[in-house]
């Protein structure tokens, strides 16, 4: 639902932008950021509220945001220092480029929870997501893309990483983003990449040409592929939560002191770690307190073992459709 932007809101936002204008860009050229989008704010006042996009007057962080890792969190944090923070990303890239489908790192139904956990880093504001169909922008030049942000979406500014590429065939870089945003009266803030502290000790396959040792979704996927859940947590800034649909549980047994649940991998809504046994995990269901469990993953199924026998009594009538598993470490 679109949210109207009032004149008072824009006035407060402009004041915040002016106070932020002394902060310098961390772009490769160390270019100071000067514009405070006052001309665009004046234009917004002339538009009827229903004519504004849902991100009008906001600050958008640019990226793919698959993993919602600590690098993405930093982008949202910087955006929140200037105005209402949004994550702007594209959907449908796999279909356009013919990529093989792959499970997301964060389940779609779990993204709002993750973004809510970023609130303390974002001035107690929860960032919101705004997605654009990639097919509608894939042929835009860098200038046309920035023009879309300014004239169609009417955002007040952007935040991006120093390695951000945009426009047709990724022809635009961070420096060009700064220049074009100034040309269109928007604020731009380029931040340094959040680096992976373990980059020297991890063997990341160098298939991603943008890989420069920064925290990335590629690194998160690699860490999950080797079952290093401590490393995954460091990259995400939280424990990895795997989400399962309750309807697909096919085996549930209980003994005098243990409860065991099994389900096919087809019930998983996001990417699990490699096959193996994981201890110190927690089962999350509804508003109930987390339950300690062990998780065993094989080639076809995921198995949960809990010491709390009562947990085996849950069913769909309890009002929840999903279970979450937060991972500990892989047992040797």
UniProtKB/TrEMBL annotation:
Query: Could you give a single Gene Ontology term from the biological process aspect?
Result: FAD biosynthetic process
Provide this UniProt record's keywords sorted from A to Z: ATP-binding, FAD, Flavoprotein, FMN, Nucleotide-binding, Nucleotidyltransferase, Transferase
Q: What is this protein called?
A: FAD synthase
Question: Annotated Gene Ontology MF terms?
Answer: ATP binding; FMN adenylyltransferase activity
Instruction: Give the main EC class.
Output: transferase
What does the record give as its pathway? Cofactor biosynthesis; FAD biosynthesis; FAD from FMN: step 1/1
What GO terms fall under cellular component here?
chloroplast
Q: Where is the FAD synthetase domain?
A: 57-199
What EC number(s) does its UniProt record assign? 2.7.7.2
Domain of life (superkingdom): Eukaryota
Q: Which Pfam families match?
A: FAD_syn
Q: Which InterPro entries does the protein's record reference?
A: FAD_synthase, Rossmann-like_a/b/a_fold
Quote the SUPFAM superfamilies the UniProt record gives: Nucleotidylyl transferase
């Amino acid at each position: 639902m679109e949210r109207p932007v009032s004149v008072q809101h824009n006035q407060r936002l402009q004041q915040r932008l002016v106070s932020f204008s002394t902060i310098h860009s961390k772009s490769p050229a160390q270019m100071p950021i000067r514009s405070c989008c006052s001309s665009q704010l004046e234009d917004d006042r002339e538009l009827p509220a229903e004519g504004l996009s849902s991100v009008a007057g906001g600050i958008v962080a640019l990226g793919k945001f698959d993993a919602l890792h600590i690098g993405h969190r930093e982008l949202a944090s910087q955006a929140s220092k200037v105005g209402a923070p949004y994550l702007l990303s594209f959907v449908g890239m796999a279909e356009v480029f013919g990529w093989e489908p792959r499970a997301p790192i964060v389940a779609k139904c779990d993204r709002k929870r993750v973004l809510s956990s970023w609130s303390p880093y974002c001035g107690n504001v929860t960032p919101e997501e705004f997605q654009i169909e990639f097919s509608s922008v894939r042929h835009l030049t860098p200038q046309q893309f920035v023009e879309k942000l300014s004239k169609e979406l009417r955002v007040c500014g952007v935040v991006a990483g120093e390695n951000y590429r945009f426009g047709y065939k990724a022809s635009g870089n961070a420096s060009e983003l700064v220049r074009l945003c100034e040309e269109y009266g928007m604020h731009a803030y380029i931040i340094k990449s959040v680096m992976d502290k373990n980059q020297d000790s991890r063997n990341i396959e160098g298939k991603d040409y943008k890989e420069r040792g920064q925290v990335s979704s590629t690194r998160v996927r690699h860490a999950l592929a080797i079952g290093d859940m401590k490393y995954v947590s460091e990259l995400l800034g939280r424990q990895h939560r795997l989400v399962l649909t309750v309807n697909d549980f096919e085996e549930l047994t209980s003994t005098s002191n243990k409860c065991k649940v099994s389900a096919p991998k087809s019930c998983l809504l996001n990417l699990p770690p490699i096959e193996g046994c994981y201890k110190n995990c927690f089962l999350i269901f509804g508003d109930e307190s987390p339950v300690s469990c062990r998780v065993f993953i094989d080639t076809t199924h995921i198995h949960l073992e809990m010491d709390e026998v009562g947990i085996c009594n849950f069913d769909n009538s309890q009002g929840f459709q999903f279970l979450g598993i937060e991972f500990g470490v892989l047992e040797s």
